[in-house]
Amino acid sequence: MRFTIAKRLYLLVAVFLIGISGMVFTLNQNAATNLSDQKAAELKSLVDVAVHIAQSKYDAFKAGEISELEAKEATKSAVKAMRYRGQEYFWINDMDNVVVMHSVKPALDGKDLTDLKDANGVRIFPAFVKTVKANGAGFVGYLWPKPGQEEPVDKLSYVKGFAPWGWVIGTGVYTDDLQAILWNNTRTALLIGAIIMLIGLAVAWYTLRSILKPMGSLKRAMLRLANNEPINEVPAEDRQDELGEMAQAVKTFRDMNAERKQLAEQQQLDQTGQAERQAQIDSLIENFRTESRRELQVVTQQMDRLRSTASSLTQLSQSTAERSDQALSAASLASSNVQTVAAASEEFVASIGEIGRQVEQATSAVNDAMVTTGAANERVGSLDAAAQQIGDVVSLIRDIAEQTNLLALNATIEAARAGEMGKGFAVVAAEVKELANQTSKATEQISQQISTIQNETHEAVQSIEIIGTTIEKVNVFTASISEAVEQQNLATNEIAASIQEASQGTSAVSQDIEVVSGAATQTRSAVDEVNSVSADVNECAEGLTRTVDRFLDKVASA
Predict the structure, then answer these.
(1) Which pLDDT score is estimated for 471?
(2) Of all helices (H) and strands (E), which one includes residue 195?
(3) What's the pTM?
(4) Are residues 186 and 288 in the same domain?
(5) Does 59 reside within a domain?
């Protein structure tokens, strides 16, 4: 039994459908497990809330805020009022199976339900107490009627003990509600799976059709090509998938088959025109013999010209070698002269340095002279000021002498008026007048001397100022000389560097001349080799001419 591509594709679709079914079943089972776990967690959290209420009331009792009876009543009232999912409720019983509080059946409050059994014989409340005593909390399954109904149904309850008061607090859910939710989820999963399977079947049918139909067409086209039947169009050649690649391969096979037929026809035509081509070949051989001989003759002539050029090149290389020797001698002499200039430039640099040091010393001396001149100028100024003050004192003495002379004159007049009694006073007045006149003359001489001193001091100040100006000019000149010496030093250093570069350049020129001389020698060797090669080429050309003649003779006779 052949396992065709169609069967493989159908098998792939079947595996896909089985996988979808398995996935739906697994998801449904996981949903059921998750729902059960979710309900269990919900029951635990709800009972924990009720226990927390009881604990808070008990703590209030312990704190003395309320009595124990008030705490219990408040707990029962709060738990009794609790509802979830519309009608789900809580209950409380004690460790003796007595109902403390039942939210939907108050008639059970205070009753001992030790002997209460469900339809399966399970003693319900003893089971609650047993679970709490064993584990502190847990789940209990049994049959119990829904609120407002008499028929008992499966119920799963969670109970937890409250030790301070010996209570068991519990609540539960009816499992038929869980089963209804699970069945609803199952139907939804089945519906989604069916839709996916239908879509998968549609896609599979379209895929199978898009694959199998073009493959059948390609099969028929290949059979026609195998029977040498012509085909104009190749099926599915415009597709961009593997079938399109197969169609392109079939198209290539068709084109190659057509080319093969054309080659066969061309071979028949070639056999018909073979005689004509043979005649053309003979003509071409003769033309080739003539052309090759002519070209070989041209080669021989070119070799002769090459030998002539090589001879000229030999003479040129000899002349180059001689001139290179002369240039090498001149370069050696230039290098010696450059070294001499370099030594002289070094001595010149040393002289420039010594001049710079002397100029610096002269500048320092000029600066010292400027300082000394300034000090002398200040002292002469002080002397001029002192002479001026002395002149002022002399003027004051002159004024005092004049006043004294005037007083002596007045005293003489008064003594004359006094007669004999004033003679002694007149003598004194005359002496005072004489002293005043002498003082006036002395002050006049002092004034003349002071004036002379002031004039000479003023001239000395002017001379010192002229000397200071001259020293400043000398300082400017020495600064210019120092700058010129510095520039000359830089220029001399540049000259020394240039001379050093010139020395290196002459050395490089000498080396280049030696290289040129060596190149000339190599040129002579190369020219000799060219002459030898040209002779060999002439011999090869003659041998080639003979070989071509023999080859063409053989081709013509074949």
Answers:
(1) 52
(2) helix 175-226
(3) 0.35
(4) no
(5) yes
On whether the CB atoms of residues 367 and 412 are closer than 8 A, the answer is no
For residue 487, how many other CB atoms are within 10 A of its CB?
Answer: 11
Q: How far apart are CA 31 and CA 40, in angstroms?
A: 14
CA gyration radius, the chain:
72
Q: Give Cα separations from 213 to 204, 236, 547, 549 (angstroms).
A: 14, 10, 68, 69
Contact (Cβ atoms closer than 8 angstroms) between residue 420 and residue 435: no
Task: Answer yes or no: do 291 and 179 share one domain.
Answer: no
Distances (CA, A) of 486 to 19, 352, 480: 102, 8, 10
Please check whether residue 73 lies inside any domain of the structure.
yes
* Parent domain of 427: 284-555
Kindly state whether residues 288 and 431 are assigned to the same domain.
yes
Q: Does residue 266 contact residue 255 with C-beta atoms inside 8 Å?
A: no
CATH number for the domain spanning 345: value is 1.10.287.950
Torsion sign over Cα 393, 394, 400, 403: negative
**For residue 218, how many other CB atoms are within 10 A of its CB?**
19
> DSSP 3-state assignment of 131?
helix
Overall number of domains in the chain: 2
Residue-by-residue DSSP string for 39-94: HHHHHHHHHHHHHHHHHHHHHHHHTTSS-HHHHHHHHHHHHHH--BTTTB-EEEEE
Separation CA 477–CA 484 (nearest Å): 10
Question: Is the CB of residue 132 less than 8 Å from the CB of residue 138?
Answer: yes
* Residue 85 CB neighbours (<10 A): 10
| Other residues' Cβ atoms within 10 Å of the Cβ of residue 82 | 15
pLDDT < 50: residue spans in the chain: 355, 359, 474, 481
DSSP-derived pairing of the beta strands 167-174 and 152-162: antiparallel
Give 112's DSSP letter. B
SS (HEC) of 161-180 = EEHHHCEEEEEEEEHHHHHH
**Residue 66 φ then ψ, to 5°:** -135, 170
Residue 481 is predicted with a pLDDT of 46
Residue 144, strand partner residues = 153
In a domain, 242, yes or no: no
Do residue 397 and residue 508 come from a single domain?
yes
Assess contact for 144 and 156: CB atoms under 8 A. no
Indicate the residue type of 304: D
- Which two tokens mark 270? 């070639």
* DSSP character string of 485-514: HHHHHHHHHHHHHHHHHHHHHHHHHHHHHH
How confident is the model at residue 460, as a pLDDT?
A: 56
Angle at 175 between CA 119 and CA 109, to 5 degrees: 60
Which has the closest alpha carbon to 514: 333, 321, 338?
Answer: 321
How much is the pLDDT for 347?
65
